[in-house]
Amino acid sequence: MIKIGDKLPTAEFISFNADGAVKLSTDQIFAGKKVVLIGLPGAFTPTCSMNHLPGFIEHSDAIKAKGVDTIACTAVNDQHVMKAWSKHTGADGKIMMLADGNATFAKAVGLEVDLTAPGMGLRSKRYSMLVENGVVKQLNVESESGVNVSGADTILQQL
User: What's the rounded Cα separation, in Å, for the pair 108 and 133?
Assistant: First the structure.
């Protein structure tokens, strides 16, 4: 599993901008920037939608006021689901949604979780991290269900 001080591995996400779907590399997202990255098991899932993402939406201005260039959210969903979830939650324009449809990034950072038993397949663990110029400065990984250590309040304290 990735740890504080490690450089993020090279990976590619799909996101949306005004022109439509775009592929973005980790270098494009993180190089030369201070980024808060939220990892979630899945868009539209109860804990992600009601307890994790809302805090980052609500506190996005406060987080960015502490020098953060981008707040990004990744989940093991396709780009269309991530776009719809962004609009549904009000994250549009506040949180950059990054589709990791095949869990490529989740596996590369060692934060994948096998949820095939409840019918969800391979997903991302729930976490938040602070990344500066591609290097992990803070990492908050949930060890159980719920949002106990990876929420917006924790990131605000760490900034």
Answer: 18
Residue 144 — pLDDT band, cuts 50, 70, 90?
confident
Contact 5, 15 (CB under 8 A): no
What's the CATH number of domain 12-158, 3.40.30.10, 2.130.10.10, 3.90.550.10, 3.30.200.20? Answer: 3.40.30.10
**Cα–Cα distance measured from residue 85 to residue 40, given in angstroms and rounded to the nearest whole number:** 12
73 is catalytic: no
pLDDT band at 32 (very low <50, low <70, confident <90, very high): very high
C-alpha to C-alpha distances, 17 to 21, 134, 139, 148, nearest whole angstrom: 7, 22, 28, 32
Catalytic member of 11, 24, 38, 48: 48
Model pTM score? 0.95
Both tokens of 153, joined, read 């309040």
Asked whether residue 50 carries a pLDDT value surpassing 90, the answer given is no
